[in-house]
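pasting for ref
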Amino acid sequence: MLTMVSRTGAVHVARIRSSHVDKAGQRHQYESVYLRRSYRQDGKVKHEQVANLSALPEAAITAVEAILAGTELVPAGQPGAMQITRTLPHGAAAAVWAQAKTLGFPALLGPPGRSRDLALALIISRVLHPATKLATLGGWPDTTLGGDLGVAGASTDEVYAAMDWLLGRQDSIEAKLAARHLRTQAGPARLALFDLSSSWMTGSHCPLAARGYSRDGKKGLPQIEYGLLTDPAGRPVAVRVFPGNTADPSAFITAVDLVRTKFRLTDMVLVGDRGMITAARIEAVKKLPGLGWLTCLRAPAIAALAADQGPLQMSLFDTHNLAEISHPDYPGERLIACHNPVLAEERARKREALLTATETLLAPALAAVHAGRLTGADAIGVRVGKVIGKYKMAKHFDIDITDTTLTITRRQAQIDAEASLDGIYVIRTSLAAGTLEPAGIVDAYKDLCHVERDFRNMKATDLDMRPIHHRLEDRVRAHVLLVTLAAYLVWHLRRAWAPLTYTDPEPPVRTDPVAPAKRSEKAERKASRHRDEDEQPVYTFRGLLTHLATLTRNHIELPTGHHLDQLTTPTPVQRRAFELIGAPIPLTIG
């Protein structure tokens, strides 16, 4: 029952909570709701009860509170009531932007301005939806990223100008990253990883495009090459673009120049594979004080160490799978010999498969000669030459050709000699004794897998850098720089979101550096069950971004003429994703 009184003035809703304990010892909670008017009398604040609202439904009480707070309520479903006039995907863009902000990306890129906003939008867009610049530009009006960063109406010329601006700041950006991740390394040996990859191009007018060794398997197409410098964990630090026919050793000299002259780093050790850091390049690096190397010997050099009772013998591995050796051909260097039985089995299997495949290719020529359909030493030689080198197994065959005969036999002694070294590799380094243990040297060389993973993410898995459509050299370099900076973002996002994705959140510490790396039991369970320990779905990195994009921002028009923006209610996964990157869910970006 409502009890009314005659006093006038503003009123408010008061919620009074009380409790009592019954005879059984149970505590009961009560809430009474009153419509009250407050006034001052004799210097004291007094309350007058206007009505008792306790018997009303909670929705009605909430409505009364909203009305008294000045909110204008509109009946649901009434024509002309509240309308959602625009819904835009928001969560994924907001999450990537939040990670970029945490990493200091705006300041890293350069001073505030239109070009920086466009460059940042291009980098974030590459993480969200890899596409051509024209497609990215056309999609900005349909995301909160475009509107909030003020780039939705950008022109093509503005985007290209922003790319040119970013390329002009490449040295400054990379110097900051090097100071952050290379200069701050602790310990006597500071390591940097370097490797080279390639991507094919469209068109035929870019001076950088050339035909070379394609790491993408796109033979016959023009390509560019690019070298990536990272810290030991694989964080991209710097990138350089080369013509498509550049050899690995030439690219390594560029990495040396970066470290010495651009970043002014000393006491650094560059880690690269055996095709990158050749003997000739090592001799050049020896003349540069403060720089060291860590790489692996090629097969002929390993065979030389094992020949004539050399220091590399299988007895070294009777009790351990690695041993430190020395040889006069490598003065002042350390050699770490390793034996991996799993690798030995795989190499033996692969060799036999390639030998068999080569013999299969040669079988039709043998049959044609024996049947008399193919005669003449020259014709037979041409036929054999077309296929003998396809699998690079020609060195393991003896071929005898006459005008009427063809004989092909395996060089079994040579095959056995090569097989005796299966699973053995030798790491060479300039690191002095005491700076890094043999196991640490093996770990450092195996860390090159992090650069290979970066290349996979840049080219296919996450960022889809290829094919490259730009024609001007500087635009190609700017495109590769954009993708590299996006890869830097992805590196941090993948680690932050490991609990929600298939990424191993707690990789096991290597107890045996030579043995193959293993995933944790938790990661194995996620991979097999597609659910985490809380029975929640596990996502791929791209799948998680897709789920985050379903967190939309709705533009709402009120019948009063007012408007507001409101986010949909986040799912538990979306909330967790933002928690893992240490950021609240923002209503706007920027």
